[in-house]
C-alpha cells in the first residue's frame, strides 16, 4: 500500500504576495506594509493533511515577532484567500499570537491560549478520527480548539507586521510536542468509542 504524501514545504505557487520565502521553502518573512486587513502574508503547506493518519501535526518557530506579533498558525482548505489570516474565513482555522485567541469564520475570535512571540514554538494538530483541531505552545497541549472541522485541510500560517519571520517544521526536525504520545491517546479514544458502539 502506497504511503500518503505529507506536507513537506511551503507552497510558493499559491502563497500570498507579501511573503518572502527561503530557498529551502521552510522559512518565511513578511515583506508587506500591514496597512489593511487584506495585505496579510499567508501560505499553506504543499499538500493536505494525510487522511489515513490518526493525527497530523506541524510546528512553527517564531524567529522574529516583528512590530505587532500578528502571527497566526492553523489550517485552511485549498483555495483559501492567502491575503487573510487563518481563521478569518469559513474555510480556515487559526490561533493568533498577538492576542492568544482562536478564530474560525470571523475576525473577532474567542479566548483560547496565551500570546506567543519571538522564541516560541507553536504547533497545530488535527485528530483525524474525531475531526478536532488543537494547538500547542512550547510543547504544551492547549486543548481542543475546534470540533467537527472540515476535511482536506492544509497546514497554514499568516504574518501581518513588519519583519515577522517564522520557520516551519513539517517533521524534518524533532517536534517540541510529544506527537507519539498524542497519537497513542487518539487511538485509545477511538478504540473506546468503537467498544462503546459495539456494546450498544
UniProtKB/TrEMBL annotation:
Organism domain of life: Eukaryota
InterPro entries: B30.2/SPRY, B30.2/SPRY_sf, ConA-like_dom_sf, SPRY_dom, Ubq-SigPath_Reg
Classification via SUPFAM superfamilies: Concanavalin A-like lectins/glucanases
Pfam families (UniProt xref): SPRY
B30.2/SPRY domain residues: 1-175
Protein name: B30.2/SPRY domain-containing protein
Protein's organism: Prasinoderma coloniale
Lineage: Eukaryota, Viridiplantae, Prasinodermophyta, Prasinodermophyceae, Prasinodermales
Amino acid at each position: 500500500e502506497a504511503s500518503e504524501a505529507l506536507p513537506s514545504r511551503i507552497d510558493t505557487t499559491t502563497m500570498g504576495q507579501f511573503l518572502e520565502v527561503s530557498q529551502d521553502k521552510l522559512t518565511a518573512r513578511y515583506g508587506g506594509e500591514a496597512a489593511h486587513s487584506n495585505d496579510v502574508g499567508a501560505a499553506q503547506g504543499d499538500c493536505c493533511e494525510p487522511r489515513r493518519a490518526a493525527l497530523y501535526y506541524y510546528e512553527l518557530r517564531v524567529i522574529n515577532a516583528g512590530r505587532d506579533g500578528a502571527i497566526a498558525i492553523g489550517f485552511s482548505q485549498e483555495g483559501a484567500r492567502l491575503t487573510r489570516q487563518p481563521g478569518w474565513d469559513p474555510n480556515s482555522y487559526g490561533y493568533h499570537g498577538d492576542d492568544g485567541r482562536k478564530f474560525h469564520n470571523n475576525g473577532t475570535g474567542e479566548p483560547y491560549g496565551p500570546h506567543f512571540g519571538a522564541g516560541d514554538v507553536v504547533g497545530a494538530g488535527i485528530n483525524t478520527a474525531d475531526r478536532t483541531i488543537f494547538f500547542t505552545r512550547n510543547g504544551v497541549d492547549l486543548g481542543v480548539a475546534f470540533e467537527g472541522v472540515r476535511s482536506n485541510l492544509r497546514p497554514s500560517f499568516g504574518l501581518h507586521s513588519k519583519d515577522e519571520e517564522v520557520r516551519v517544521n513539517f517533521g524534518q526536525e524533532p517536534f517540541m510536542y510529544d506527537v507519539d504520545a498524542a497519537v497513542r491517546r487518539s487511538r485509545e479514544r477511538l478504540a473506546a468509542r468503537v467498544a462503546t458502539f459495539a456494546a450498544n
